[in-house]
């Protein structure tokens, strides 16, 4: 069945502008995202649909797909290894990979990593059981806390946040779960809190807030001011009241979600993908498709430049005046 669907999709792409399409094979462009319960996956689906060349839209001859993954580090590794053409990552992880520092200390630099676009702020959520008595990061000491799986950007940031308050994994009962399973354990009383990094509102947290009741743990205070001085890729952020049912306004911090690729991808292909990413049709799909879609703007596309832009993307941004 999957074979037939793929064949139909390829035939559909070839039918668009036959004079060009029959001269070339479809180009496949995978976008590594994250777990299906997070924000990367639905946003990746919207972008893949928008840039795919079908029904007279997108990049002619392109078949783009969003692929679920373990997140930032896994996506960068897949791009480096050639099993993905592109992927989403946190800005901190992209910077560490490209410079061979932080999480990538001693692992070598991913020198070919290039930016297509900065997408939106990724908020650090510390989701707690309403009755867990957790009112600050310091209160996580001795609690059962999931900090996400190894290979995710979330686990890196969780360790940094804990460290800012003088805690390590040894000070908590650490679990290593994706947000979906972590939420299930929280609902069942088997977990006190979990870290999640992603754009708000995220469906899994919204559902948990409605069905079981949650609190968001604030990430604020002098410890955080010091953290922001040390790690420039973090910014102050606020989750507005009632973003999640019953949860008051909560101060926290965020990183930027970025769409990255390899310098090995052709300049023309990435130029056309970037151009399509910011056209009127894509804008409509992003605005209508996800609450975070409205925050993905051309004005923000060239911010948080911790790594070089891909030459194809850079060409487009200079053409439209988004970059000097």
UniProtKB/TrEMBL annotation:
Pfam families referenced in this protein's UniProt entry, alphabetically: NMT1_3
Position of the signal peptide: 1-23
Species of origin: Pseudorhizobium pelagicum
Keyword flag Cell inner membrane: no
Keywords of the record: Signal
Gene3D superfamilies membership: Periplasmic binding protein-like II (3.40.190.10)
PANTHER family: SLL1037 PROTEIN
Signal listed as a keyword: yes
Protein name per UniProt: Immunogenic protein
């Amino acid at each position: 069945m999957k074979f037939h669907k793929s064949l139909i999709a390829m035939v559909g792409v070839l039918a668009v502008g036959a004079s060009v399409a029959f001269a070339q094979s479809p180009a496949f462009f995978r976008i590594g995202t994250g777990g299906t319960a997070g924000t990367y996956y639905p946003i990746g689906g919207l972008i893949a649909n928008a840039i795919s060349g079908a029904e007279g839209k997108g990049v002619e001859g392109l078949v783009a797909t969003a692929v679920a993954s373990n997140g930032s580090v896994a996506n960068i590794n897949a791009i480096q290894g050639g099993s993905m053409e592109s992927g989403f990552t946190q800005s901190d992880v992209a910077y560490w990979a490209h410079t061979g520092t932080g999480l990538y200390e001693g692992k070598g630099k991913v020198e070919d990593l290039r930016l297509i676009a900065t997408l939106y702020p990724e908020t650090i959520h510390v989701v707690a059981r309403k009755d867990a008595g957790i009112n600050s990061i310091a209160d996580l000491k001795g609690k059962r806390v999931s900090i996400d799986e190894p290979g995710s950007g979330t686990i890196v940031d969780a360790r940094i946040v804990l460290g800012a308050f003088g805690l390590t994994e040894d000070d908590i009962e650490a679990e290593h779960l994706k947000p979906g399973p972590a939420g299930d354990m929280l609902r069942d009383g088997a977990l006190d809190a979990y870290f999640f990094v992603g754009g708000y509102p995220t469906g899994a947290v919204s559902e948990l807030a409605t069905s079981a009741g949650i609190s968001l743990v604030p990430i604020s205070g002098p410890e955080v001011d010091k953290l922001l001085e040390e790690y420039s890729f973090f910014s102050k952020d606020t989750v507005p009241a009632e973003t999640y049912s019953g949860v008051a306004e909560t101060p926290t911090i965020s990183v930027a979600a970025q769409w990255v690729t390899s310098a090995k991808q052709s300049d023309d292909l990435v130029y056309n993908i970037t151009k399509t990413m910011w056209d009127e049709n894509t804008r409509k799909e992003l605005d209508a498709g996800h609450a975070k879609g409205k925050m993905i703007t051309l004005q923000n596309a060239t911010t948080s430049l911790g790594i070089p832009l891909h030459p194809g993307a850079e060409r487009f941004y200079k053409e439209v005046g988004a970059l000097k």
